[in-house]
Design a protein that fits this description.
This protein is mostly beta strands and 312 residues long. It has one helix at 2-41, and strands at residues 43-49, 52-73, 81-86, 93-94, 99-104, 116-119, 124-129, 136-137, 144-158, 171-176, 182-190, 202-209, 220-236, 241-243, 246-253, 258-270, 275-280, 287-291, 300-304. 18% of the residues are buried. This is RND family efflux transporter MFP subunit. Residues 72-148 form the CzcB-like barrel-sandwich hybrid domain. It comes from uncultured spirochete.
Length: 312
């Protein structure tokens, strides 16, 4: 009899175990189902880790080309006369020793003089002729102005906030407004003191080689200056939320699995790279939203979807 009771009790234990296992599995499946349903109702986002980087960025400016040097030609100290012939005018290229004009000195004195030939003491381009045929001239009269355009200087306007980053010898790309060709120049001079006129940016002078005479003075150009900056915290422009004259980003808390809206302070904008420098508001190692930031709310629970589509 006792043996029969033990047998029945054992069967009951087995049956109860089977029922418990079935119940537990159903509960686990139900829990997974609800969890999956809950996750499917949460918004999916993508995140990126905050890291500091060394980066190069460029600043675009406008400028104008000027001759690097200009010379004025006058007759010798003992020469005076009347302009009899002018051989070259504005825009003409001249070499050193080239005859530019002839002065007739017989009209000035009764003595006989050979015609006085005015020669160019420099090579360059005539920028201005200051006299006409028949004019009386002396050693104080300015006859010609000649510019040396084998080297040109470009005066570019640069925003004040970049002025302290400019260095002599720094590389600058000079481009014509039609963007057909670019030239490489180097910074020759910059004012270390910002312009006090807020409407007038500070100027930087760049020297460029023009030995092939491809450029002319007076034309407007675009200039690009390259800067290097270390330990920059850069985030995509698309991650920033602009509202009421303030900038914010959504930060993801991995423990709480929630996003929190946080105000930040921004610096330089790298339009060519689509990045913005963050000066304050983010800490290295945190995570910020790169997708879904315009669909979530502050302190909202979310799903983090990696680039391969998996949920974190």
């Amino acid at each position: 009899m006792n043996q029969k009771k033990v047998y029945i009790f054992s069967i009951l234990i087995v049956l109860m175990s089977i029922v418990f296992i079935i119940f537990y599995k159903k509960k686990e499946e139900k829990s997974k189902k609800y969890k999956k349903l809950f996750q499917s109702q949460l918004r999916n986002i993508e995140i990126e880790k905050v890291v500091y980087r060394n980066t190069n960025f460029r600043v675009s400016c406008s400028g104008r080309i000027y001759p690097n040097s200009e010379f004025h030609i006058t007759p010798d100290i003992q020469s005076r006369g009347i302009v009899e012939k002018i051989f070259l005018y504005e825009g003409a290229k001249v070499s050193k020793g080239k005859v530019l004009m002839v002065l007739n000195q017989e009209f000035i004195s009764n003595e006989s003089f050979n015609p006085y030939k005015v020669r160019s003491p420099y090579s360059g381009v005539i920028s201005d002729v200051h006299v006409e045929l028949g004019d009386k001239v002396n050693s104080q009269t300015r006859l010609f102005s000649i510019v040396d355009i084998r080297r040109l200087k470009v005066k570019i306007d640069i925003p004040e906030k970049y002025l302290n980053r400019v260095k002599k010898g720094q590389k600058v790309i000079i481009s014509l407004e039609d963007n057909k060709k670019s030239f490489i120049g180097k910074v020759d001079y910059y004012s270390p003191v910002p312009s006090f006129n807020k409407r007038k940016p500070s100027q930087v002078i760049v020297l460029i080689n023009n030995s092939n005479f491809e450029l002319n003075s007076g034309i407007f150009v675009d200039a690009t200056i390259f800067f290097e900056k270390k330990n920059l915290l850069l985030i995509p422009m698309t991650s920033i939320i602009y509202e009421s004259n303030s900038y914010s980003v959504f930060v993801y808390d991995r423990k709480k699995k929630k996003v929190f809206l946080r105000e930040i302070k921004v610096g330089n904008v790298m339009y060519n790279e689509g990045k913005v420098e963050v000066l304050d508001g983010l800490t290295e190692g945190e995570f910020f939203l790169t997708r879904g930031q315009f669909m979530v709310f502050d302190e909202e629970s979310v799903n983090v979807v990696n680039y391969n589509g998996n949920i974190e």
